[in-house]
Amino acid sequence: MFSHMVVGSNDLAKSKTFYDSLFAATGGEAGKTDAMGRLVYAQRGSRFVITKPINGDKATAGNGGTIGFAMDSPGEVKAWHEAGVTHGGTSVENPPGERQTPMGRIYLAYLRDPDGNKLCARYKFAD
After folding, report:
1. Which of 22, 62, 82, 109 is most deeply packed, by most CB within 10 A?
2. pTM for this structure?
């Protein structure tokens, strides 16, 4: 459904360290800086972009918003979460683990990035 997601950052170098670790933990490549100075990640047919706000205002995290990343296994979720915490992220919500939901069994982990954006890694079991 989604082609790309964009979040704002006040410190692109700090964001690069954080997001490079998340994508590396799941087999992705380091982010590339595009011609507009944005940090771009491409993986599994989607793009994730980090940028300083175009209007020049300070970047702030969206209240109530979460960006979810699809994972291929519970181990990949764990590696993603561990990499994020190690590189400037903050673990939020419940600890990473399996949950029973109306969608079936899933394995989740939540982080806030260094700018406060809420992220989720999710693996859905094929029950």
Report:
1. 109
2. 0.88
